[in-house]
Amino acid sequence: MRLLACAGVAALGGGTAIVLAGQSDTPKRSDARPGLVAYYAFNDSPKSRNLFADRSGGHRPAVGRNVRRAAGKFGRGLGFNGRSSSLSVANRPSLDLTTGMTLEAWVKPQAKDGKRPILARIGRGGNSYAVLAATPRGGMAGEAQVGRSSARVGVSGDLPLGKWTHVALTYDGARMRLFQNAGEVASTPVAGAIDDSKGPLRIGGRVYGGGWFKGIIDEVRVYSRALGAAEIRKDMKTRPAKLEPSAATAPPAAPGAPGASGVPAPSGDLPGWRQIFLDDFTQNVSSWGNCSTYDQGRTCASLPEPYRSKWWAYPTSYQDTREKNNGDGGFYDPRNLSMQDGLLKMVMRRENGTTQAVAPSPKVGPRTYGRFAIRWRMDPTPGYKVAWMLWRASGSWGEIDFPEGDLDGTISAFMHKPSGQDAFTTRVAQGGSAWHTSVVEWTPGKVQFFLDDQSIGTSTSSVPDFPMNWLLQSETSLDGPPANGSVANIYVDWVAAWAPA
What is the 3-state secondary structure (H, E, C) of 279-294? Predict the structure, then answer.
């Protein structure tokens, strides 16, 4: 995930930029410590693959990339290679540690040069808060953005390499303190509220200003208040209870190896969500052939199983939006859909003044409410657009579209309502070599949009409460058709959907 992937997010209409629906930020474990908002012990079942449970009760797993299981301080920990390993936790309101915080972890570093982040909240233009095992100035340090200033506390001495050390950073609204093995080693006066970055929480991975952790990390805790030395010492000595397999930590089926996008398909239930659909395109198909109309049963007869039961696409008789409105667009052609090398390949082209558009549809509807995720990349070819949508199964209402926009433009999300719309725009290019993950979470009274683990907006007015279908509509740009002979390729690594649990 790119650090500044959602810089410059704007909310238009009735939208506001907030995060996460259908999942409580309040710890529900009866033995949870007051103020504990995130806790990762890494004693998860190997079946969890790259997902690591949040034991605080906050219901937000950490997603790993290039990490390895290793012997931890208590049970298992995670090894980081110092160049590409990281864990990311999606933004949520409970991570806004504005008036107080404690960041804790056991670390066993293997390098002390440069910047070695342990735990940080990523922001736009800086880290909202962070604790580091090493810095270019010397030893471990803590930092936070308070108001318009950057506060820092640190020591010159290095952490011992190859040995376990407990590190903690606290802030109580007046002073920031750094602890090593529950002993205070440095402090500095700081006054004000910590800036709310609305970015992800990152463990061991690259942060603002560079640097990666190299070594092993275990027992990561985040509190929304400042702990005292005695409480930190208690956490140091507390061995986690045995973690029972759960939907968040033990998916029922392991996904395949990461495909071209580098991110495995998310197999299994999530807290608050029951998985109902997953396809990572492991079987090659040269062409879908033509498909029936919606009223004729949504069937693509040439598709082999299991695809035939899981997919439909607009047939060649369907006009795209530009053709309906202006007469110079084109028609959908499912024959330009194929599965190759673990990817769904969607090809659009312009021939003899007519666009061949594509619109595959996962058979997850009609249904009311759900979580819908896609991993994709697109060619930035002018004259083509996408509007991947949830649309009403019967009657008219509007659409929930994400992503939507021209392939040579930027990524946006829209709630098109019977009257007006909510629009959320980003500065992220829609087309190019970068892979992206787009997620729509639709729950009663709320629709939220996430791009690469970062919230880009939410809609809370006129939210539909009736069944809708899911469609990856890809077609002629509404601003004008593409050049004759042009081709636009869209690649999809995986598609997944969940219903409320």
Answer: ECCCCCECCCCCCCCC
